[in-house]
Every structure is written in structure tokens, then in C-alpha cells.
Design goal:
- The complex is a heterodimer.
- Chain A is α/β, with parallel strands linked by helices.
- Helix content of chain A is 28%, strand content 23%.
- Chain A has eight helices and nine strands.
- In chain A, strand 6 and strand 7 form a beta hairpin.
- Chain A is elongated, with a radius of gyration of 22 Å.
- Chain B is built from five helices and four strands.
- In chain B, strand 1, helix 1 and strand 2 form a beta-alpha-beta unit.
- The C terminus of chain B is likely disordered.
- The chains are: A alpha/beta, B alpha/beta.
- The interface between A and B is medium-sized, with 13 and 16 residues.
- The structure holds iron/sulfur cluster (2 copies) and FE2/S2 (inorganic) cluster.
- The site of one iron/sulfur cluster has 10 residues of chain A, from helix 6.
């Protein structure tokens, strides 16, 4: 899932300065799971905003709304009837969601309430870790399912480097050396022959270096 | 300002603080009438929005009272509530309210005197802090009127 963290409260308050009625829009997808932008967080942020504005003698009205996914026009369209009432939309989705809402409603300012941080998963409730950097050319076959790009601090394709000590990375004794993990796992799977193959210099064109990416399923195009 | 009488909301667990409040009553113990008790099945029911709503609706202080640690009838409800209360302290601080306006206490149903003591102490704390910054205007106008 996409992980996000809420922006500092003051930054959010600055964005909505001057507005008298806004919509705080949650997303039922990734950011609900990582506890930053779902139904509950919409209520919490809205309550905070109302109190802060009330305190400053500039009360503001809020429509609290959460839709299934903000990265899907089907759900975004559902909020249209409410839009004439509000000056702006404060989206609590990831950056993709904010973009989608913004390009759907050209006449409405749409602001991000979160910083979109990474693609990852939950180790346990409320604890999220990065696991993929969307490089566009997945190497996990060679690396025993452990991503060298997202989990090696230097994104080395033929690691480890000399900074690997007792299974930890030199940037921080708390951080596992991804390449140690890869080698241990390849060993236990009896797949060390894959480690023997050199990985060629990465072709970053499949990553962001090739410009904005898209994915099209031809059989769905009409 | 000497007229200030705080509104205090106490979220009390049914199995402990609520019973302790009852006991305090039967024992004829005095505590400030400003405390408005809301009964919960367990403090594990508390989420940040409960606490924020209380402040938004005009509370000057809010506390959560649960079972003694290790004694929660749902095993760890009170241990879930404690970090939530601490997290919500940060949320109200962002808004500009003093984090001391929110607290968590633990007691058993047998601790009627402790219930009254907590109520008195918290009342004194909020009285010293003064009205919630959200209620200031209300108090100023009512004093002027
Ligand atoms: S808008 Fe972002 S957070 Fe919401 S479902 Fe889509 S990808 Fe996930
Ligand atoms: S190799 Fe690329 S696609 Fe595969 S997990 Fe790592 S970053 Fe993601
Ligand atoms: S039952 Fe009392 S705090 Fe859980």
C-alpha cells in the first residue's frame, strides 16, 4: 500500500487560511489502512481545524466525507453535488488521490493534508515499513523476494558493500543490511546460483527517468 | 475570572471508576459538581475523536478513568487507552490547548475516596488553567453582560 503521514498542523492551517467552508475528504484505500487519511482521521483533523479556527475567532465550516478510493473517477464523481457549497477540498489521500481529485474538479482548489512517503506494508498495527520503490523492472527473482532498491540504503544491485557489519547497514545499526538478508535467504532456499549472476547496470527508464508512467490493459479499452 | 466554573468531562469505565463514583456518592464524599461523567464499557472504547469532541463541545478539561493496570476486564483496554490519551494530548496542543487539560487516571471500583480526590485535584488544575481558549469568548461576554 501507499504510506502517508499527516502534514504538520500549522502547514495545513496555512493552506486553508481565508476559506470559510471546506471539505475534508478521506480515502478508504491505503491511507485508511495506515491510519492517516481514512474516516476516523477525517473526523480528528476536522475537529482540530474547527477548534483552531474557533479559537482565533474565524470559525470555519467543514463537510466531512470519505470515499472508497480517491484514485478512481467512479468514486470521485460521487462528491460532485456537495462541491458548490465549499471553497476548497482538503484531501487526506496519497498524492495520487489529490491529483485525481484536482484533475476531476478543475474549478476547485484541492490541497494535500498528507505527505506521501513510500510504498510498503505494516509490520504490525501502526508500524509501517518501505518495501518497494516502483523501479518498473522487478528484480525479486534474483534477490529471494527482498528488494535491493528499496531496502539497500544505496540501492546496490550487486551488494553488499563494505559497510555491511554483522548483518547491519553502516547508516544505522538498527537497519538490516538488505544484501545480508538476500544472501541468507538465497542460501536457505539453495538458490545461491542466482547471486552468482551479475545484475547489469539498472535501466532507470522504467523508473521515473522515463517520465510519468502509465499502465494500460488493452482488453479493457473501449 | 474568579467566577470561572470549569466544565469537566470524565470518561469512566463501567467496571471501576463508574463504580467508584457510585461508592463516593454512597459514602457521602464531596467532590465538585462540575464533573460530567460519561460511562464507557471499558476505557479501551476511547478514541481520540471522543476526547476532541468533548473539547469541541465546550469542555475545559477532560479525563479518562480506567481500571488499575493489570485489572482491565477486557485484559488490556486501559493499556490501549493510555497511549491514545497521550496522542490526543499532542493533538490538542497543535490546536493551542494546554495538554494538561487532558489526563488518564486508574482506580478500582473500591476506591470511592480516590475518585473524589481525583475529581477535586483535576478540578483545581483546570480552575488554575482557566477557561479553555475555545470558551474564553463565551466567558468574557457573560462577564460583560
Ligand atoms: S488514493 Fe492513494 S491512498 Fe487512496 S486508495 Fe488510491 S492509492 Fe491508496
Ligand atoms: S526491484 Fe523494483 S519493482 Fe521489485 S520490489 Fe524493488 S523497487 Fe519494487
Ligand atoms: S474494563 Fe475498566 S478499563 Fe477496561
Amino acid at each position: 500500500m501507499v504510506i502517508g503521514e499527516r502534514k504538520p498542523f500549522d502547514e495545513i492551517m496555512k493552506m486553508i487560511e481565508g476559506h470559510n467552508k471546506i471539505m475534508v475528504l478521506g480515502c478508504g484505500g491505503c491511507v485508511t489502512v495506515c491510519l492517516t487519511g481514512g474516516h476516523d482521521e477525517v473526523k480528528v483533523l476536522s475537529s482540530q481545524i474547527r477548534m483552531a479556527r474557533e479559537k482565533d475567532g474565524k470559525p470555519l465550516e467543514i463537510i466531512e466525507k470519505t470515499i472508497e478510493r480517491q484514485c478512481d473517477p467512479e468514486y470521485i464523481e460521487g462528491i460532485q453535488p456537495l462541491l458548490p457549497e465549499v471553497d476548497a477540498i482538503l484531501s487526506m489521500a496519497c498524492g495520487a488521490g489529490v491529483n485525481f481529485v484536482a484533475e476531476t474538479y478543475l474549478g476547485k482548489p484541492v490541497y494535500p493534508a498528507l505527505n506521501t512517503t513510500f510504498v510498503g506494508g505494516s509490520k504490525k498495527e501502526g508500524y509501517y515499513v518501505e518495501r518497494c520503490q516502483t523501479c518498473g523492472d522487478c528484480k525479486l527473482y534474483y534477490t529471494a523476494g527482498i528488494c535491493p532498491i528499496a531496502r539497500c540504503s544505496k540501492s546496490l544491485l550487486n551488494g553488499p558493500c563494505g559497510g555491511s557489519t554483522k548483518g547491519k547497514c553502516e547508516i544505522d545499526p538498527e537497519v538490516d543490511c538488505a544484501w545480508q538478508l538476500i544472501i541468507d535467504r538465497l542460501n536457505s532456499l539453495d538458490q545461491m546460483d542466482r547471486y552468482e549472476e551479475f545484475m547489469a547496470v539498472n535501466d532507470w527508464r522504467t523508473n521515473r527517468d522515463g517520465g510519468p508512467r502509465k499502465m494500460i490493459r488493452e482488453d479493457f479499452q473501449r | 475570572m474568579s467566577e470561572f466554573e470549569p466544565i469537566i468531562v470524565a470518561f469512566c469505565c463501567h467496571y471501576c471508576a463508574y463504580g467508584a463514583a457510585d461508592l463516593a456518592g454512597s459514602m457521602r464524599l464531596e467532590y465538585p459538581p462540575n464533573i460530567r461523567v460519561i460511562r464507557l464499557p471499558c476505557t479501551g472504547k476511547v478514541t481520540p475523536i471522543y476526547l476532541l469532541r468533548a473539547f469541541e463541545k465546550g469542555a475545559d478539561g477532560v479525563y479518562v478513568a480506567g481500571c488499575l493496570e493489570g485489572d482491565c476486564h477486557f485484559i488490556h483496554g486501559n493499556l490501549v487507552a493510555k497511549p491514545r490519551v497521550n496522542y490526543t494530548k499532542k493533538l490538542i496542543q497543535e490546536v493551542g490547548l494546554e495538554p494538561e487539560r487532558l489526563e488518564m487516571f486508574n482506580m478500582s471500583a473500591a476506591m470511592g475516596p480516590r475518585f473524589a480526590e481525583v475529581a477535586r485535584e483535576f478540578y483545581e488544575r483546570i480552575k488554575t488553567l482557566g477557561p479553555s481558549p475555545l470558551n474564553k469568548k463565551v466567558h468574557v461576554t457573560s462577564a460583560a453582560a
